[in-house]
Amino acid sequence: MPACKNCGSTQVDEDGAHGYTICMGCGNVLEDQIIVSETQFAEGGSGRKHMMGALVTDDGSVIGGSALPNKFGCHKNYQRRIVEDATRVMHCIANRLKLAQQHIDSAVMFYKMALSKRILQGKRKSHVCAACLYIVCRTEQTPHILLDFSEIIRENMFQLLRVYTRLCNALCIKLPAADPCLFISRYAQRLQLGDKSDVICVTAMRLVSRMKRDWMATGRRPSSLCGAALVVSCRLHNCSRQISDIAKIVRNATATITKRLKEFSETPSSRLSIEEFENVDLGEEEDPPAFKASRSRTSPGSQI
């Protein structure tokens, strides 16, 4: 008889029906999945004998015997076909976005986790596959946004957002906030800045870093901060780009970019020259724009 590792007692109780081995001294569960290794045979109605049970491979497929349906209402082979179909859909999406094979493998693992938790019912396969790939992109910090996946599968972005949020909540996934600096090079390439592309990107990334320290990135879309930073950086390096042109590239409204520029103009960094901005690092942080706007509304001088 096996001895308990907790108290050393040899008085254990094996429950073959439920597959448990429990110590009678301290109640510690020694085994919770007892596998029967002997071969048993049963006699059918016609007098023929057949082997009980079936062989199960590492991937869950059943070889021989009777494949009983699992608790999800389908066979393991059927689940494997579901995963294979989802993998093909992910390959099509990943090829359009130029994602690596490791991203697809990680997304397939998230899909299997969602399948085991029975949260895929009533959802389109394209939505779930795109959401799993987006979770991987957020985890690996790749320069992709949810709108990219929405355009590829030709579905509403907000419907895809609901599926993505549901998956994160069900799988208990806490993703880091999207860093706007990841998208600067991508948007700058679309602007066709020529020889000034590198220096504009460096200045724009420094602007975004300063905006993050001044609480301008909290609760805002990263694309709007990238648009405002590119507008300022292009003007600093004498590159003529209109706000409307940059707004189309970052897929934000012109009013949104203008609002971010107005918020940045109220920070001390906006009053620095180009040389001072590139060399001087201000240690102080500004209050969030929403807090400053609320404080200005509640101040005595603002009431008439």
Please give a structural write-up.
With 304 residues, the protein is mainly α. 50% of the residues lie in helices and 7% in strands. The chain contains 12 helices and 7 strands. It has a 3-stranded antiparallel sheet, with no helix packed on it. A hairpin with a 4-residue loop joins strand 1 and strand 2. It starts with 11 loop residues before the first strand and ends in a 6-residue tail after the last helix.
Give the overall silhouette. elongated
Strand order of the largest sheet: 1-2-3
Strand content: 5-15%
What is the structural class? mainly alpha
Instruction: Return the string of H and E elements.
Output: EEEEEEEHHHHHHHHHHHH
Which residues sit in consecutive blocks of at least 5 with pLDDT less than 50?
64-74
List the helices and strands and how they pair.
Blueprint: E1 12-15, E2 20-23, E3 29-31, E4 41-43, E5 49-51, E6 55-56, E7 62-63, H1 76-97, H2 101-116, H3 125-140, H4 146-153, H5 157-170, H6 184-191, H7 197-213, H8 222-236, H9 243-250, H10 254-265, H11 274-279, H12 289-298
Antiparallel strand pairs: 1-2, 2-3, 4-5, 6-7
